[in-house]
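FORM 7B - TANDEM STRUCTURE REPORT

SECTION 1: FIRST PROTEIN
SEQUENCE AND TOKENS:
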Amino acid sequence: MSLSQAEIAQLIPHTGTMCLLESVRQWDADRIVCTAVSHRDPANPLRRDGMLPAVCGVEYAAQAMGAHGRLAAKDRTKPAAGYLASLREVVLHVERLDEGGDQLTVEVRRLADSGESVMCEFTIRSAERTLLSGRATLLLEAA
């Protein structure tokens, strides 16, 4: 089952240009694979001084985590907010995301889920090149 950007925006707190993911390509109970092209957009709200630092990829991963959490939950109510609680083992393989290819692939695999928080490992690639990877814990605030 794939989802469009508009459908993703119904699952996560972010809307408009802050909804960074373009589509959900596939997902199951443990994993989600999303695509994004907003890293190339000069109007990307995370850009600073004309560039998009690679560390901003963490936000792409967090949005994929949030979307996956809602898709995998019985209750698909859009959360009021999501909070990045921790990052572990984050490795930046590049300095900038905007110098990557035309499309990013954001892959997230769930490691633990309490219903109120989720811990995942993530990888962001452009074509076959890994741009960044790590683990993150996200806290979700109910609507």
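SECTION 2: SECOND PROTEIN
SEQUENCE AND TOKENS:
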Amino acid sequence: MDLNKILTITGKSGLFLLLSKTKNNFIVSSLADGKRFPAFSDDGVASLENILIFTEEGDVPLETVFRAIFTKENGNKIDENHLADNNRMKAYFLEILPTYDKERVYVSNIKKVLTWYNILVDNGLVDNEVSEKSENQEKQEPDEPTETQL
């Protein structure tokens, strides 16, 4: 699974595929409808590869969480019923990542992760393979400041 070209943009719902990068902006395509548009660095653009989830034992890359969901769901989407209720989402996330920090990971963060997973499955962009960067990241010290954390 390669998440470095999958982006999230502050203020816009869904996920976006990085098509090209210029000096001043990014050209992205919405994974929902395929529409292309420019995004600027001050728009709050973040790669899913750089997002970490707070746990009680350190931070976990989002890719690791997606792999756990992929395994649990046998490569299928998450049932929409899990996204309908806050308590169901928390219980589901607890199954996927039992050590997630319940004080710093909010229900809104959990909903984003579960929704993003379904978007990736719809677009055939999620699998159970470990990327090289993820393997290296799991060996690094957990306190590196270059990552976005949920």
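SECTION 3: OBSERVATIONS ON SECOND PROTEIN
The CA atoms of residues 50 and 145 lie 10 Å apart.
The longest helix spans residues 107-122.

SECTION 4: SIGNATURE
Preparer initials: ____
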